[in-house]
Amino acid sequence: MRDETITGETVPVPESGYNFAYLDEGAKRMIRRAILKAVAVPGYQVPFASREMPMPYGWGTGGIQVTASILKPEDTLKVIDQGSDDTTNAVSIRRFFAKTAGVATTEKTEEANIIQTRHRIPEKPLSEDQIIVLQVPIPEPLRWLEPREVETRRMHALSDYGVMHVKLYEDISRHGRITTNYDYPVMVNGRHIMAPSPTPKFDNPKMGNMPALQLFGAGREKRIYAIPPHTEVKSLDFEDHPFSIQAWDEPCALCGAEEVFMDEVILDDQGGSMFVCSDSDFCQRRRDAGHKGPAVEGDDT
Amino acid sequence: MYVAVKGGEKAIDNAHRLLAEDRRGNPDVPELTIDQIREQLKLSIDRVMTEGSLYDRDLAALAIKQARGDLIEAIFLIRAYRTTLPRFGYSQPVETSDMVLDRRISATFKDLPGGQVLGPTFDYTHRLLDFMLAAEGKEIDAPETVETDTDETPRVLEILARNGLMEPPDGIETDGRSEAEKADVGDLTRDPLSFPTNRDLRLQNLARGDEGFLLAMGYSTQRGYGRNHPFAGEIRFGTVSVEFVPEELGFPIEIGEIEMTECDMVNAFAGSAEAAPQFTRGYGLTFGHCERKAMSMALVDRALRSKELGEPADAPAQDEEFVLSHSDNIQATGFVEHLKLPHYVDFQSELAMVRRMRAEFFGEDDDASTAEAAE
């Protein structure tokens, strides 16, 4: 029989009647143990006893549990989804922590010491004082090649990764390129193939040698994994087909930024569209600093 | 001019207000009370308690009201509440042989000690809409009640076991685990499930699993996908007492009574090199009165024992990774419905590549809106 003793040191939140950051201290300690193991073995998926959360599975429960278990009252939290602080699910998660933990929240990347994100890494480089928590739907990079967990765990244990290279090779022979554009598999610390979560491959290079700690939480699949600061992360490729990232011909229509990930915004039903920064904080701060993109040039407001 | 997509906070607040308004419906119609839901939608309550893994009729009623009758949403509310409750310990195993019976039937024997007790069942109703029910205040004929004596109502499978025709309750000994290992019952809400599993964890998973999913899986075994020749050996529904051993006392005390439904399925087994031909078991257990769920669970439990019994295991219902990974409706609905969340950046990545590939297909140069640059 397994059980948890309910120890003291819980910080009650007056408003909600739940423990600080929702989870009980026993659950948070269990999650922190999994995180420590994940940090010790970069890219390895650590099974953990994922709790049921008041948000649906697939909506960030893994990331939320990781954030809840590392959150301290003095922390400042930023939550983004698709690069934006204002998408509804980011708003919902930020509110959840503001309510259950009472922590300060921010939209400014450098002000946050914990950033929870879905599908993006901020454009502004992160520092050693920061932790980025990524929400992960399917943590297993080999899942589309092998549906069985028993088998994929064996493949990781033996570094039996031939099937992944064959898949990438078949892409090239069929399409002339690797057709994976997001959740592009990476090799972490030269040992484990890892799913970077469905971030666009544009963000893969940011993961390598990042000064910040990167934590990945998959609630439904009950896995946590990590990339410690300054760890080698290599996107899989071939010598004659080197890894490449997306680039846009136009700068951001609002702030003029180049070499950032862009969202395409449909302007009309005649095929008109423009490209704007996916990272809403990055874009806003550039505009505040006086940068202008083609859509606002000459516009003084 | 393009206006940035702002206003998520406001939109969420207003969506919640609209939800509350929709839930209430026409304010001229009296509001449903928790008591009404608890007393008159009993089977909804029972399903929410079973799949929500929390035996509390009032909370289940509240969840159903708040979820506007969406039972999976109600189960979700109960699960999210349950996860915050402190875990004091585990009760003693419930003794369903001592159940105070409201219903007890066997499809394997015409008559048997204790008799067949139909109890409250839809089974022999004609499914004709009763328009009298639409009018309120219909008089109900008082039913006769009989006391069943649990001492004189042995379990059907025990009767078979006495003759050596039925495997022991914890299975024909083939899994190689010691008694101590078998006694250490797992808890998948406290430890992540890893494969291969044992029957304790499988049963816990199935007990929490979606009724519809288990129904379809069980049904598939009847249609030849992992056929195992089931008979409803015994189905019982009634009240059992729950006992708990507080550490400071050291002996069990009764802490309450709960209603449960239990299904013992009897399945044929031809025998193997080590084991004589005998009947085998499939087991189902639920809170409240969830007969369809208990029966489906028993069918699937038996199907998942194929490997242990040395049978071929190539049907979906016999594949434990497939069944156990997809049985939980809260996990399933969350992940299916997460497709509603924005996927702009992933879609943008795909869009860029398809444009580029189309440009190549039509022999154009690189005039698509995006290009790929070396890292």
UniProtKB/TrEMBL annotation, chain A:
It catalyses: alpha-D-ribose 1-methylphosphonate 5-phosphate + AH2 + S-adenosyl-L-methionine = alpha-D-ribose 1,2-cyclic phosphate 5-phosphate + methane + 5'-deoxyadenosine + L-methionine + A + H(+). Pfam families: PhnJ (PF06007). One of its GO terms (biological process) is organic phosphonate catabolic process. Keywords: 4Fe-4S, Iron, Iron-sulfur, Lyase, Metal-binding, S-adenosyl-L-methionine. Its EC number is 4.7.1.1. GO terms for molecular function: 4 iron, 4 sulfur cluster binding; alpha-D-ribose 1-methylphosphonate 5-phosphate C-P-lyase activity; metal ion binding. Catalyzes the breakage of the C-P bond in alpha-D-ribose 1-methylphosphonate 5-phosphate (PRPn) forming alpha-D-ribose. Belongs to the PhnJ family. This is Alpha-D-ribose 1-methylphosphonate 5-phosphate C-P lyase. It comes from Hwanghaeella grinnelliae. The lineage of its organism: Bacteria, Pseudomonadati, Pseudomonadota, Alphaproteobacteria, Rhodospirillales.
UniProtKB/TrEMBL annotation, chain B:
Pfam families: PhnI. GO terms for molecular function: lyase activity. GO terms for biological process: organic phosphonate metabolic process. Residues 167-191 are annotated as: Disordered. Keywords: Lyase. Residues 174-190 have a biased composition (Basic and acidic residues). This is Carbon-phosphorus lyase complex subunit PhnI. It comes from Hwanghaeella grinnelliae.
